[in-house]
Amino acid sequence: AGAIVIAGLISPYAADRAYAREVHANASLPFLEVFVDAPLATVESRDPKGLYKKARQGMIKGFTGIDAPYDIPEAPEVHVRTDLNSVTQSVNIIMQHLDQAGIHLPRRFRQLDENEAPTCTA
Which fold would CATH assign to domain 14-100? Predict the structure, then answer.
């Protein structure tokens, strides 16, 4: 039996993402890179902990997108714009791509109804 692992990571470097892809390929495992994207201003407006503000004030060093680089993915399998899609739409886009790639999740991880209230913000 296999396991399906979905990991939400801040992976700012293209080389690290390429390495993850290579490791999966060498093990004959599927790998889908999902680029969850929004303009920096949108991301900052959603920041409940005020980390971007602290980074801009110099209180946090090495903060991705502020004073540390972020290599934009060049060819992700899935590109979701969370400034243009709701949380529900974003989840459904990812779920559809997983299904199309032959990665079928258990029924409890179904696509969401647009009328359901999400329990998180993307």
Answer: Rossmann fold (3.40.50)
